[in-house]
Amino acid sequence: MSETVVSSVADKVATIRLNRPEKLNAFTDDMITTWVGLLEEYRSSEDVNVIVITGTGRAFSTGGDVGKFSDYASNTAAGIKARLSENVQRLAMKMQDIDKPVIAAVNGLAIGGGVDIALMCDMRFAARSAKFAETYVKMGLIPGAGGAYYLPRIVGVAKALELFWSSESIDATEALRIGLVNRVFDDDKLAEETQAFASKLARGAPLAMKLVKRILYRGLETDLRGALDLIASNMPVVRMSEDHQEAIAAFREKREPKFSGK
Known about the structure:
This protein is of the alpha/beta class.
């Protein structure tokens, strides 16, 4: 495994940490490859119910390595497109494949592609010192990692355009106000609080959580009839699951349920 991306598992929570602090966790092709591999591993692992993504040092991530931008600019149009789809966009597609909860613990600077990576996650928790900035226009670029897809769905079109066009930085308090992040913690409490929340989720019914995530995201792309039909199609799955039977038994016996994900 690349030392620039490290991971660990505890209490059924997998933590993937970008570990290139000297470059503010700017990501490279090799990092993306390692990252995608870890996501695939944890996606199918029965030992992992929740995934947390964070960074080492004073940055979550500042996006793609700026030192490589000149190399991309000298490439052919077809080459630039292929490189994008085969690298950071591959990460976005892999994130979409994961039915398990994914939480971004934004420990510091999140710039450009770093913001977009956080947006790929289901929830975002931020350190009080965190800063967010969509700086593509400032660099004469457009968001390549999916930011133009995610951001308006989270904060609305007008606010997304403001953030993209102005390239202005916002702090964690403003990010919370506009709904960009779910919760804000003191810097020294972010990792602890995120792990506690993730561990709580990890003790929930895995099958139900997966299906809730699936129907919620699918519901954003369909009409009411289609959304209700999807729910009706999945209800027998959870009704007949071992998890549901365990929840009923635990309720009757006045104890905490022990879910298997089946």
